[in-house]
Design a protein that fits this description.
The chain has 78 residues and is α+β, with helices and mostly antiparallel strands. It is 36% helix and 10% strand.
């Protein structure tokens, strides 16, 4: 889940034309975070298996002192 789902979401965004930067880049170099997070509810709704499914996204920030804090992503997910 931690690797495959974000990679698939990147492929979806590329197919939608929302990522058009060429080259080898880190995600923050070519993916708009708000666009990425807005796609989460659509991807989550694709699981119709009835089993354990993808349960969400945790957004965290690490400041310059190494302090970790969680960010409420609900504003992005509408």
């Amino acid at each position: 889940e931690g690797t495959g789902i974000p990679a698939a979401m990147g492929a979806i965004l590329m197919n939608q034309g929302k990522i058009n930067t060429k080259g080898v880049l880190p995600p923050e170099g070519c993916v708009d975070p708000a666009t990425f997070l807005a796609l989460v509810p659509q991807v989550m709704s694709l699981d119709k298996s009835g089993g354990k499914s993808f349960e969400g996204v945790i957004v965290e920030h690490i400041d310059e002192n190494g302090k970790l804090s969680k960010i409420d992503a609900s504003a992005f997910l509408g």
